[in-house]
Amino acid sequence: MGTALIYDEEMTNYKLLWVDPACKIEVPERLTVSYEALVKSGLADRCVSLPVREATDADILLVHSEEYLEAVKKTPYMTLEDLMDFCSQYGDVYFHPNIYHCAKLAAGSALQLVDSVMMGKVRNGMALVRPPGHHSMRNAASGFCVFNNVAIAAQYAKQKYAVERILIVDWDIHHGQGVQDCFEDDPRVLYFSWHRYEHQKFWPNLRDSDFDRVGNEKGAGFNVNVPWNKVGMKNSDYLSVFCHLFLPVAYEFCPDLVLVCAGFDSAIGDPEGEMCATPDIFAHLTHLLMNLAGGKLCAVLEGGYNLTSLPQSVCQTVQTLLGDPAPRPANLDGPCLSALESLHCVRSAHKKYWSCLKHAADLPTCEVSTKRNKVGEEEINEEQSKQEPVWRECPKTLPPDISAAALLPDDGICPERCYSLKSSEDLDPSIVNKLKEHILKDTEDCETLSTLSRLTVLIDKMEKNEIGSGLALVKDISKAVICVVQHAAAAPMNRVLVVYVGDGVVPFHTNEDGKTLVVQFTTQKSEEIQSKYLIPVCLQKDYSDIPGFIQATLSLLLPLGYEYDPSLVVVVQTSGCGLSHNVWQQLIGLLRGLAQGHTLVLMQEDQNAYVGPTASSLLGDPAPPLGPLEAPLPENVESTEKLRLRLKADWNFLLTTGNVK
Ligand code: X5A
Ligand code: ZN
């Protein structure tokens, strides 16, 4: 199952024909540089290239009015003067004799993408289109947009494929007010948007873009707006919103299809957004959405006006759609105060609609963000934006030759597409000596010795990026964990995140030196040891509370993992932990976003049934959806939340509110 790429040069054949400072950034080169970068990097070749088509009148009328469509139809025959005149009734948009044609292709591209994903021809895909769509309204063009490509695609998917629940993630830096308008009353379409807002001082300056616009009537709760009230938001701010808001709500909703309004004006260097998130963040945003809807994801280009960061961001997105591991994200130092204020307000506004937010603190009611900036703030912002921002282009990494390796007992059957690490007779004597000295003591156990020495070889190859990820079925899980952690943490720059699923004592000592971070999911309540680097997450009822487990994973484990930024993730499953295969696959899938996909799964020998699902997740297959989630058990919410509150002093990524309390 591949990744579709839709592009047609025809969509570069229109441009601004007069002087308009508001529109001069929307240039044909946006598309050519993006496509050329995909070709140059070899990514385009790895995609299934799909032809565009024109959206039909019927397609366009799914979202727009007949009057508006008829008006746009006349634009190819207008004189320059007529065109300028026509534009003047709308905000920040230009027309050209060929734009109607391109707008039909742009919307049609989104529909082609939906068709091929829904019919199972590809797993996911991206459409590079102009003009963009998310600002255009039923009756109006706006913000460079003529037809609302993604809104049309969502209506089309509802109609043609009877898709019950669609998630639209709008990571463009502008509010897609056209999309909001279209689905405000519709509980079948959940719309997320973050956008530069600055207390309504930023275009399109709508009161409707604030966090308290949650949707109407049956659609109440299905419109999620995150207004950014400052420029300069970073990777940490974006990831915090994903971990503490978008993902929990998305998992609870459980979409059948994910559409992305993929605008890259939210990246560093963009003259519109003035944000500071680096292009590699889009690999993570994409990755985090890829385990929803069984991986059915369609990304459609919206904005993005810096001709350097735009193609880099597009490449990161497409590379991730193809299944390559995401690069380790740079400098995650936690969200800023303004981002936390926004996050807190949105979570409060939505707590009555989503059980995953029920516990969100009801701190001082959020003021609606129309207040003025404090004195002096504007000067600071201006100064910031005067400097040309610089960032390091994420080095182009090839995925490892071996994407996943398996280390199984001699009679074990290696799962498909996995490389089998066979036991070899001749073990490296220096490794054997080390193992005997440190782990095995004097006991001579050939089988364990062979397993452990192969594990160290596997880790070395993962470190060199010759192997991406691995799984091992071992007889003695304790010894294996000790060996792996010791070996992997040895090099000075290495950090190991150990996710330990199962009861009992973690079999090695965790220092406070930060070389290892252990998060243990356990069903045993214990008062004991808990420190910055040893974190027991206690969940009642043998993990049958799936919503509780997912909540702990998204709002605790994931942010901790991102802040810790490990070089290796080790996931340990002791026997009979009782986690269902689907939940286990979600866990592995999400963790694959860390450590450049270097995930090593250790399981007890008798857990054979997990081998297949584990391998599949390590190889990047999307995890099966869990179904819409009910409310988590109150006792689990309470213990997870208590833990988060205790740990937030040590871990900035666990903050969810700006009110330091
Ligand atoms: C699609 C998009 C931006 C319009 C900005 C107008 N439009 N000032 O990014
Ligand atoms: Zn935009």
From TrEMBL:
GO terms for biological process: epigenetic regulation of gene expression; spermidine deacetylation; swimming behavior. It is found in: Nucleus. Its main location: nucleus. GO terms for cellular component: nucleus. One of its GO terms (molecular function) is zinc ion binding. SUPFAM superfamilies: Arginase/deacetylase. Keywords: Hydrolase, Nucleus. Residues 26-320 form the Histone deacetylase domain. The keyword Hydrolase applies. This is Histone deacetylase 10. It comes from Cynoglossus semilaevis. The lineage of its organism: Eukaryota, Metazoa, Chordata, Craniata, Vertebrata.
